[in-house]
Specification:
It is an enzyme of class 1 (oxidoreductase). The protein has about 525 residues and is α+β, with helices and mostly antiparallel strands. The protein has 17 helices and 20 strands. The strands form 4 sheets. The chain has an 8-stranded antiparallel β-sheet, with helices on both faces. It has a 6-stranded mixed β-sheet with strand order 2-7-8-12-10-11. A hairpin with a 4-residue loop joins strand 7 and strand 8. Helix 14 runs antiparallel to helix 15. The longest helix has 20 residues. The protein is globular. The termini are far apart. The relative contact order is 0.15.
């Protein structure tokens, strides 16, 4: 049974794996904690966002591209085989839209499905020689229009034929994969071959490794394991815009041999080159358990989490659901239990059973200082039941507004500023008459607001709220995007956040790698004149 704590403690998903993947076993899982995203924006056009108050009045950079002609198609078919070049417009349109995004991705002229690095070299050479843009796509779960073909061009789809685990190095805690491998399937595969290892970055369950690196992803596990900007990507193989192949470094666990070229591509959104292989660092799987604590306010919840972490307790996750998200859970009927209609923190602890029990006891004592009582799961079934409210949070929220669509966005601030940010945004939403529940990686100061709208008029209101949300986060020394990256939807915020000189430095890097601007153009980099 569930155990409730006052002062003392008196005691202390798996899905099908990868089938048919090519694996070399060199040398001798976690459950899905990501979001279930729910959205369908196919009937609405892509938002055209401008903010002259943020972007300085400088000359925009533009590039004209050639169209994909029958001659280009013939060259691609000759290089890849006819069956691996898709030109049917209906098939293309059905393949490109991100399932989760409020934006509707613009379709490319053609989709190609390579099987290896050599195929990608051929594609890049055709694109460069004909001045045609390239868009790389791993799984299409990104939220900010990263895979939208703003200028048409060639989309490289890795999900079809470049989704293999290539080699496992268990003694080194490493694995080499292709970009289309999904993290959930990778972890299932590692479990199936008998390894007590997993890849801990956990964004959307459908996300693939190539896109995870390219967007600088993270998830609920970031509290313990960090983000894609940590040391989880050992090296990558990249086809550069000039058609040359670069491997960023060797597999040694540490290296001080110059600039870390791997990290240049983390968060670069496919704008510097095409990633074809990735070596990942793995972590040992350790037992986890779950506890839940209600709070009277977001401020009390955030302060409680901060003190728990400062106390050295091994917190794997600390997820905040506000009162609206809890009400959605209670009304959904899809989870194990109902909760008080107030903010809740869902903790995950990691370690031995004795260690987790001790951590839970210490956490119970801390949250009691903030008026809360901890409910701790004593076994795996209870932990699974408690975690359901977080796991199904977005689906439960969507069920509250069945005739609406959900704009899913995030910002991030220093953890101490999270209560201020949430209070401001919730006040803005109430004033605007918009339903806006909160799911937050509380330990990171990362806030995901889910804004519901029924029509184009309400969409405009939501769009304005998102702009204000970003401005408020940046005013609190935060960022326009904690883990969704920039894409099309948020690039206009970068000058204000990073400064014009930093943005010019980003453009300098982009122009050095990709002087013809054929790699995923229109994403990430604000449109400023870089010639000064």
């Amino acid at each position: 049974m569930f155990r409730y704590f006052n002062r003392g403690l008196t005691g202390a998903i798996r899905q099908t794996g990868i089938h048919g993947r090519r694996v070399v076993y060199a040398g001798a899982i976690s459950g899905v904690a990501g979001y279930l995203y729910f959205n369908n924006m196919s009937s609405l056009g892509r938002a055209q966002i401008h903010n002259d108050a943020i972007i300085p009045p400088v000359k925009a950079v533009s590039t004209k591209y050639n169209t994909v002609t029958t001659d280009v198609i013939d060259k691609l078919r000759s290089a890849l085989g006819e069956e691996n070049v898709i030109t049917d417009k209906e098939v293309i349109q059905s393949s490109v839209n991100s399932q989760w995004s409020y934006l509707v991705d613009l379709p490319p002229s053609v989709i190609v499905t390579p099987s290896n690095t050599e195929d990608v070299v051929k594609i890049v050479n055709v694109a460069r020689d004909n001045h045609i843009p390239i868009i790389s796509r791993s799984a299409g779960t990104s939220l900010e229009g990263h895979c939208s073909a703003e200028s048409g061009g060639i989309m490289i789809d890795f999900e079809q034929r470049m989704a293999d685990v290539l080699e496992v190095y268990p003694d080194d805690l490493q694995v080499r994969v292709q970009p289309g491998v999904k993290w959930v399937e990778l972890n299932e595969h590692l479990e199936e071959i008998g390894l007590n290892l997993f890849f801990p970055l956990d964004p959307s369950p459908g996300a693939a490794i190539g896109g995870m690196l390219s967007t600088g992803c993270s998830g609920t596990n970031a509290c313990m394991y960090g983000t894609a900007r940590g040391e989880w990507f050992v090296n990558i193989t990249v086809v550069m815009p000039n058609g040359k192949v670069m491997k960023t470094r060797q597999r040694a666990k540490k290296s001080s041999a110059g600039i870390d070229m791997t990290k240049l591509f983390v968060g670069a959104e496919g704008t510097l080159g095409v990633i074809t292989e990735l070596t990942l660092r793995l972590a040992p799987k350790v037992p986890t358990s779950v506890a839940v604590a209600p709070f009277d306010s977001i401020e009390d919840a955030a302060k409680g989490v901060a003190k728990v972490i400062q106390s050295g307790i091994s917190v794997n996750c600390a997820e905040l659901l506000d009162d609206l998200a809890i009400i959605a859970n209670n009304n959904s009927g899809s989870t194990y239990k109902k909760y008080e209609e107030k903010p809740h923190i869902f903790f995950k602890f990691a370690g031995t059973q004795a260690h987790m029990a001790e951590d839970a006891e210490r956490t119970a004592a801390i949250v009691k200082e903030f008026g809360s009582k901890l409910e701790y799961a004593e076994n795996d079934d209870e932990a699974k039941n408690l975690w359901e409210a977080r796991k199904w949070g977005l689906a439960n929220i969507a069920s509250m507004v069945p005739n609406s669509r959900i704009w899913t966005t995030d910002v991030c601030v220093p953890q101490s500023k999270l209560p201020t940010l949430v209070q401001q945004i919730k006040s803005d939403a109430v004033e605007a008459g918009i339903y806006a529940p909160l799911l937050s990686h509380c330990a990171d100061g990362n806030a995901h607001f889910l804004l519901a709208f029924k029509d184009d008029k309400e969409r405009e209101v939501v769009e304005h709220l998102v702009e204000k949300m970003v401005e408020r986060a940046q005013a609190l020394d935060g960022t326009c995007t904690g883990e969704h990256s920039v894409g099309v939807g948020k690039k206009h915020h970068l000058v204000h956040e990073l400064g014009e000189e930093t943005v010019r430095a980003l453009w300098t890097l982009k122009n050095a790698f990709d002087p013809d601007n054929i790699m995923n153009p229109g994403k990430l980099y604000p449109d400023i004149d870089t010639r000064h």
